[in-house]
Structure formats: C-alpha cells, structure tokens
UniProtKB/TrEMBL annotation:
Residues 171-299 form the Atg6/beclin coiled-coil domain. This is Beclin 1 protein. One of its GO terms (biological process) is mitophagy. The keyword Metal-binding does not apply.
Length: 500
C-alpha cells in the first residue's frame, strides 16, 4: 500500500480499490499490485532485512516474512474495463498529490498474527498472493470480483486486529512507522536501563551478609517491636481522641463564629443606623446653632436698641414741640386742634409714667401719672386727680393748669432721682444728668406752663422746653437701663427690687 501520488509514476490508480489513510499523518494510502510494489521497493527492503527491522521495532523481535499484504495486479492496461467496486468503497475521484514528502516504499506493515491470516498453502515467498496462480488477474470473472471483495474485507479486519494488539491505530505509512519505531526504541532503552538498575540492586542485596538472630534475641527484638507497636497504637488512640476533641471544639468554634458573624452583622446594621441618626441630629443641631447665632446677633442688636427711643420720638415743628409727630401747643397764627394736643399729652404722660414705674419703689413715685390715651390724668400728693386734656376755657382752666404743673413737678422729681442715682454709681458730674431748662414750680426756663391768662406763644415755648427736658431724661434712661417693654418683666423687676 502506498500514497496515491506514486501511482502516477507506474500507472493509473485503480478506482475500484478502497482508499485508506495513515492514522498518524492522515495521508491517503492506496492498495497496488505486486509488480508495482516490487518495482518501487528498494533492494534492501526487498531482501527482507529492512522490513524485518521495522517489524521488529513495532511488533517485537519476529521476522518480517509474510507481515505485509499486497494484492495481485489488476488489469490496469485495460482502462475501460474497470472491475466492479465493493459496496463499501468510496466514490472514485483523483486524490491530490503530496509533494512535501517522498512516498518511496510507503506500504502497510502488519503484525504476525494479522499477517498469518493471509497465508495459504500456495504462499511460500515474501508476499501472500490473493489471486490463485495461473488465473488471469485481468479477467473480470465473477470469481475474481468475489476474491477481491473478500481480500478487502480481510485487509480491514487485519487493520482492526493490528490496532487492538499494538495499541496503535492502523494502517501507518512507513515514515510514520519509522518515527513510531524510534520512539518505541527509546522507550525500550529506558526500560532496559531500569532493568539493569534493578538487577544491580538485586545483586548488591544478595551480596550483603545476613545476620541471623538467635531465638532469645529474636524474642527480645520481637517484644521490643511489640512494645513500640503498643506505644504507637496508644499514641494513635490518643491522637484520635485529641482529633475528636479538636473536631468537637472546631464545630463549637464554628457555631460561635457564625453567632459572632451574626452579631457583627447586627452590630454594623445598628452602627450604620446610629451613624445615620447621629448625622441627622448633628445636622439638626448645627441648624439650631446657626439659628441661635443669628438670634444672638439680633438680640445684641436689640439690646443696643432701646424701645423707648423708637416708641417716643421727640422733636419740634418750628417753635412747636412734637412727640411722635403730635404737636403740643398752638400759636395765634397756627391753629392746632385739641385732639392733637391731647394725643401729644397722652404720649408724654405714657413716657414719664413708664420711666417712673421702672424705678419704683426706689423712686418715690408720689405724683401719679395715669396715661389713658388722649385723656391722661394726674394725681397729686393729696390724691386729687386732674384732667390733662382739653378743650378748656382760656380764661378759667384751673384744673388743666394744675394737671400740667403737677406733671412738670413729677418730671423734676425724676430728674433729681436720676442725679442722685448717678452719684451713687460714682458717675462724674460732667457726665451726670443735667436738664437744659431749669424747672421752678410752674416755670420752665423763663416761661410758665399755665394756660390761663397766658399767651399762646409763651405757653407753646414752655411746652417745647418741657419736651426738651423729657427728651434728656429719656436719653439718661436709655443709657442706664436695659428696658423690657412688657409689663410682666417690669413687674418682676419691681418685685425683685422690693425683695432686695
């Protein structure tokens, strides 16, 4: 059997022949006739020496005789007369050539058990003739076809037997067989080296002298070994016991470890929840602190701002004094309604009453001011009450005049109280309260505050001077007190002063 490319040199390939492939290099192999094979087999291979060496490498040490199979020549000269193919043969087609490697001597090598099945009584030479001698191989007789089919079947069976016994897939081309032979030669060399090493060790062991123990020594050695065995068994039992204890402890520790992992997981969940709550509280706290800081800034601003200074704005409109834009007084050429004058007196009475009430009982509030909006009243030291509002008769306004006079007296007493308080606090005289206009009875400066039989211009000037003194007293009050406008704190301060 050889590659199909070789057929081009000796003749056409019979398309009826089955195609086989080398199981190693997968090259196509074709069965050819005896003469074609003999023509292409080298001389040293034809003599059987080379074939024997290949067979010895693959199958063992047996000879190569009858270890390869070649079929008898078919009638290749008659091209049109092609014998019928076996049913299992593949469809005829031209196999491509293999130019990369030489194909000389590519034939099938079988082991002796497989090759023996081809031996017949007539076969004595190097090959097994499947066609009986004397029969024309080119004859397309039915018997010839039957022999051809049986030969192909036997050849396939031979390949199967060779594969099963050599543990190598068959068929193989000669080149692959040489590679495999070299590989197996190397393995055989390794095995022979191992055999030599074992034999050397065995010889060395046989040459060693044997010390034969006496019965007594043998028993002692035996007893010693038995004791060591008992100790080892006891140690093994102890180790097994320790192993069981350690295993039990390991299980307990694994259970505890799992519990700790659950506790740790729960802890981290709670920790994260706590951190989230803490962060929320911190943000809320920071927001509150920011609000407190802003409130403190506003508080400091409010502390520096006295409500009385904004609540009672004292000024003038020409020669007429004003308080909260209410004119107090009138001129001959400027008519001011009594409602406006009454409102101005109400604001002045409320201011003086507030300042006097703040220092009660330290300030002897003998003359009581009753701020009642636009209808204020004044109570003298004899508990006589007078109306501090109009309209009144310009020629007979005794009660109104007395109310204005007692109001002026109350203002003078509060100013004297302020001066005495500055002395107690060691305030320098130049910084102590001094009224810009002297109050003497019903006079302010050089003008009387009485309306009866008085000119409007003089009365208006007296009222303007009175408001100016009231403004100075207000400035002193703002600089020496932290006034709280609600009545509750005023009353609490009064109670505190009483208790002290």
């Amino acid at each position: 059997m050889k590659p199909p490319a070789a057929a081009g040199k000796g003749g056409a390939v019979d398309p009826s022949l089955p195609r086989f492939r080398c199981q190693e290099c997968r090259r196509a192999l074709v069965v050819v006739g005896v003469d074609s094979y003999a023509d292409r087999l080298p001389a040293h291979a034809a003599s059987g020496n080379h074939a024997s060496s290949v067979q010895g490498s693959v199958m063992g040490a047996s000879r190569m005789e009858n270890s390869y199979v070649v079929l008898s020549r078919q009638n290749r000269s008659q091209g049109p007369r092609i014998p019928p193919r076996p049913p299992s043969a593949a469809a005829p087609h031209t196999e491509p050539s293999q130019p990369t490697r030489a194909i000389e001597g590519s034939y099938i090598v079988l082991p002796p058990p497989a090759a023996s099945i081809y031996k017949t009584p007539a076969s004595e030479g190097g090959g097994a003739q499947l066609t009986p001698p004397g029969v024309n191989s080119s004859s397309p007789s039915p018997g010839n076809n039957s022999g051809f089919h049986s030969s192909v079947t036997v050849l396939k069976r031979a390949f199967e037997i060779a594969s099963s016994q050599t543990q190598v897939e068959q068929p193989l081309c000669l080149e692959c067989m040489r590679v495999l032979s070299d590989k197996m030669d190397k393995e055989i060399e390794d095995v022979n080296a191992d055999i030599k090493a074992y034999e050397a060790s065995l010889q060395r062991l046989e040459q060693e002298p044997y010390n034969i123990l006496s019965e007594t020594d043998f028993q002692k050695e035996k007893q010693k070994i038995e004791e060591e065995e008992k100790k080892l068994k006891a140690a093994i039992e102890e180790a097994e016991k320790l192993y069981s204890e350690v295993t039990s402890e390991m299980k307990d520790l694994e259970i505890k470890s799992k519990q700790f992992e659950e506790l740790e997981e729960r802890y981290w969940h709670e920790f994260n929840s706590f951190q989230f709550q803490l962060k929320s509280h911190q943000e809320e706290r920071d927001a509150v602190f920011a609000k407190i800081e802003v409130s403190q800034v506003h508080l400091e601003l409010l502390k520096r701002t006295n409500v009385l200074n904004d609540a009672f704005y004292i000024s003038h409109d020409g020669v007429i004094g004003t308080i909260n834009n209410f004119r107090l007084g009138r001129l001959s050429n400027v008519e001011v309604e009594w409602d406006e004058i009454n409102a101005a007196w109400g604001q002045a009475a409320l201011l003086l009453h507030t300042m006097a009430q703040y220092f009660t009982p330290k300030f002897q509030y003998r003359i009581k001011i009753h701020p009642m909006g636009s209808y204020p009243r004044v109570t003298d030291i004899h508990n006589n009450t007078y109306e501090l509002f109009g309209p009144v008769n310009l020629f007979w306004s005794t009660r109104f005049d007395k109310a204005m006079t007692w109001f002026l007296t109350c203002l003078q007493e509060f100013a004297e109280f302020a001066v005495s308080l500055d002395k107690e606090n060691n305030v320098p005289s130049e910084k102590s309260l001094k009224l810009p206009y002297k109050i003497d009875g019903d006079k302010v400066g050089s003008h009387t505050i009485v309306l009866s039989f008085n000119k409007n211009e003089n009365w208006t000037k007296a009222l303007k001077y009175m408001l100016c003194n009231l403004k100075w007293v207000l400035y002193w009050f703002i600089g020496n007190t932290s006034f709280a406008p609600p009545s509750g704190p005023v009353r609490a301060q009064s109670l505190k002063n009483k208790s002290s």
